[in-house]
């Protein structure tokens, strides 16, 4: 039995409905065309909501990779909810399960389970949201015990609808179409972490899954594509790290820069980053030459 009420279930179902509506609404840009202002609106809404998803939902709310006042978490969660990709309880529940079960049968969105190949890509790129996996088996206690986060979770669709109304108010049908297109691109951008970052790219660190460092996904998601590093060090506020020839190399990570900016503004503190010794200890190119068998999965032995 699900740990939540029929009203919560109804509220959750609105999420995928609005994402499908955004896909259809994007077609409006073919009738209106796009001015430079509308293009800036698309990119601006994409970047701000992506940063809230990666910097607040993912690295703060879910992994607690840095500390921040509750007001930052609340405001950031409202902005992240405006991405149309559900509220804080739903988001954290699914993402924690992904880390616990990465690329195993209970992973909610692995490209390797249940289908593979192109079917696996479609599944991990958003298909899973249209299955029974969409409903988390349990909601995280810490988020549920925060009344503000709980309200944001159940009313997750309000910031998205408000942003759509604001877009229409600013620039009529053209900006409404731009808002839909931005929301659709943002949805697929975030989902590439679930798909491409488990399918293609380098694996500099030893992990018990198929996570990869994928530079295309890193660009699309403002730093989240360095996903092999993230699976190796989930509590790190910095994902953009790799190891080559026994040396630690830091990669562009706009979300980490955003966290550093918050720190400069005294809105964040104590960002956690692994030491170089820890990084080298988990590096594949350090383990393999020494003859130690690294427990890294490949498709052949999965
Ligand atoms: Zn992953
Ligand atoms: Zn994570």
Strand order of the largest sheet: 1-2
Number of helices: 14
Dominant shape: globular
- Element order, helices and strands? HHHHHHHHHHHEEHHH
Uncertain stretches of 5 or more adjacent residues: 289-302
Strand fraction band?
Answer: under 5%
Tell me the number of structural domains. 2
Mean pLDDT: 93
Radius of gyration: 19 Å
Q: What helical percentage do the residues reach?
A: 55-70%
Describe the structure.
The protein is mainly alpha-helical and 302 residues long. The protein folds into two domains: 6-198, no CATH class; 215-301, no CATH class. It is 56% helix and 3% strand. It is built from 14 helices and two strands; from the N terminus they run H-H-H-H-H-H-H-H-H-H-H-E-E-H-H-H. It has helices at residues 6-25, 28-32, 36-62, 70-81, 88-100, 117-124, 141-144, 147-154, 157-194, 215-220, 227-232, 254-264, 276-282, 284-287; strands at residues 241-244, 247-250. The longest helix has 38 residues, at 157-194. It is globular. The protein starts with 5 loop residues before the first helix and ends in a 15-residue tail after the last helix. The model is unreliable at 289-302 (pLDDT under 50). Bound molecules: zinc ion (ZN) (2 copies). The site of one zinc ion has 7 residues, from helix 3 and helix 5.
Give the key terms.
302 residues, mainly alpha, two-stranded antiparallel sheet, 3% strand, disordered C terminus, binds zinc ion
């Amino acid at each position: 039995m699900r740990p939540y009420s029929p009203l919560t279930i109804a509220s959750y179902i609105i999420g995928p409905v609005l994402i499908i509506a955004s896909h259809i609404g994007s077609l409006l840009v073919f009738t209106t065309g796009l001015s430079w202002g509308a293009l800036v609106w698309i990119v601006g809404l994409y970047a701000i909501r992506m940063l809230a998803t990666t910097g607040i939902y993912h690295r703060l709310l879910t992994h607690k990779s840095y500390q921040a006042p509750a007001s930052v978490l609340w405001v950031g969660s409202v902005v992240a909810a405006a991405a149309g990709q559900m509220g804080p309880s739903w988001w954290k529940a699914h993402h924690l399960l992904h880390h616990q079960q990465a690329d195993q049968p209970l992973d909610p969105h692995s490209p390797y389970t249940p289908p593979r190949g192109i079917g696996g890509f479609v599944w991990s790129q958003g298909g899973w949201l249209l299955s029974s996996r969409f409903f988390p088996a349990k909601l995280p206690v810490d988020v549920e015990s925060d009344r503000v986060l709980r309200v944001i979770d159940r009313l997750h669709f309000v910031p998205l609808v408000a942003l759509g109304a604001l877009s229409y108010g600013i620039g009529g049908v053209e900006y409404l179409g731009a808002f839909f297109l931005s929301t659709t691109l943002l949805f697929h951008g975030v989902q590439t972490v679930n798909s491409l970052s488990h399918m293609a790219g380098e694996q500099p660190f030893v992990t018990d899954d198929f996570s990869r460092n994928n530079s295309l996904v890193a660009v699309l998601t403002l730093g989240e594509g360095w996903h092999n590093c993230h699976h190796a060090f989930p509590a790190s506020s910095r994902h953009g790290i790799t190891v080559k020839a026994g040396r630690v190399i830091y990669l562009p990570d706009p979300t980490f820069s955003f966290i550093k900016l918050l720190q400069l503004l005294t809105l964040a503190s104590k960002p956690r980053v692994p030491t170089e010794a820890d990084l080298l200890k988990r590096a594949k190119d350090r383990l393999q030459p020494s003859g130690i068998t690294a427990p890294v999965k490949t498709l052949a032995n999965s």
